[in-house]
Amino acid sequence: MRLSDLRGRTVAVWGAGREGRAAVIAIAAHGPADLVAVDDSANFLTLPWEGPLAEAAPLVTGEAGFDRLAAADVVVRSPGVPQTHPWLVELRRRGATITQGTALWMADHGERTVGVTGSKGKSTTSSLISHLLAAVDRPNVFGGNIGVPTLDLPEAELYVLELSSYQCSDLTDSPRVAVVTALFPEHLDAHGGEREYYRDKLNLLAYGPRTVVVNGADPRLAFELGDRAAVRAGTADSVNVAGGPDGTPWFHLVDRPLFPRAVLPLVGRHNEGNLCVALAVLDALGVDVVDRKDTLALAVAEFQGLAHRLTEIPDPSGLTFVDDTLATSPYAAIHAIDAYDGRPLTVIVGGNDRGVDYTPLREHLAERELTVIGIPDSGPRIVEVLGGLPKVRTELVEDLTDAVQLARQLTPAGGVVLLSPAAPSYGRFRNFEHRSEVFAEAVRTTSPA
Are residues 225 and 367 in contact, defined by beta-carbon separation less than 8 angstroms? Predict the structure, then answer.
């Protein structure tokens, strides 16, 4: 289904956040017979619905919203509406036509798109792909889950999108290059279970992409793909890291050296894998990565990473504060913790509680010495799971600012205070950017004079 297919039809946009707002403006331009917006979760964080939005579509809130959704020819749901929402379950039972803004957009732009998803690494990998393509004279527009909603993107010859499992779930068109960075259980409350989560995530591959590129080192991803044709980055048959001409680790395309691992400024083994995937995508798009290796090395060295992924915040105390608010799962937090191995470490965890199993985090920290500070809503449950570990000190506080203040007191000189929450931001913050802003402000306001 395309945006143009909505002309003359009754349409209900479900969600009043960033994606819902973009959908209303885009759909209104295509002449629907009737357009309404529905928000069943309005709270103190909700932004005003006014101006062009209100002119394009009235906003219906609360229980009355279901009747408007049920009466529409097409429901365009925001990614934040979970598959398990009772209204969505009932609408599907009734046979309602349900789509998303990204699915509408992909129908018209898929052939010009690199789509990146994964349980971890998708944000950094998609950003790397966009950055490296621009460096080799392949201009592109970057957007999706971490950037501008797809329906707000300008026209371009090439797009790089970071796509969440929620966005992938309703696609009926695959991008030209479909990329998957990793698979592990996440967002299970929103998808209905592990099997359903993998199904929705891998829906990105379901509609005939020209090329599939995956992280070949991820065991769950390898199992789910089976013998499907794919470029498996990180293996000897693709871009990989191995001993180079000077005896140190180098990135290679198969057996041809590209540049040293030391060129990549991002910490952690997981970021080596992210760059392997990004370079494999460039290769799949016809970029001669061997011929352009010097240009690519310079671009890699200049890559600053994402604003909310292991971003260090300067502080006069000598402590290193790290914003890793994009780490919304225990597995992502594990990678962040490993990146600061060998330094005194305090980790701030907690956010929207989706019932995730934190046992893998406990197992990973069994022999690690560090402090963990839990904040609402899931912080107390995470701390409970970590209880009894001999080298892990745990504390609970009421908010993020209190956590930063306590971390200053508990973290030894020269240590690291890492916000790697292992949970999403929603509930107490508008989005991950808002949580990041609160963290940065807390670092500033608690800083010693």
Answer: no
Annotated binding residue at 401? no
329: Cα separation from own chain's centroid: 11
Is 119 among the annotated ligand-binding positions?
A: yes
For residue 449, pLDDT beyond 60: no
Fold exhibited by the domain 104-302: UDP-N-acetylmuramoyl-L-alanine:D-glutamate ligase (3.40.1190)
Task: Please indicate if the annotation marks 387 as binding a ligand.
Answer: no
pLDDT tens-digit readout, 72-98: 999 999 988 988 899 999 999 999 999
To which residue do tokens 């040293």 refer?
260
How far is 7 from 9, CA to CA, in rounded Å?
6
- Kindly state the tokens that stand for 355: 């019932």
**Distance of alpha carbon 275 from alpha carbon 322, whole angstroms:** 21
Q: List 122's β-bridge partners, or say none.
A: none
Class of domain 311-444: alpha beta
Asked whether residue 325 is marked as a ligand-binding residue, the answer is no
Would the annotation count 121 as a binding residue? yes
Domain boundaries, the chain: 3-99, 104-302, 311-444
- Is 130 annotated to bind a ligand? Reply is no
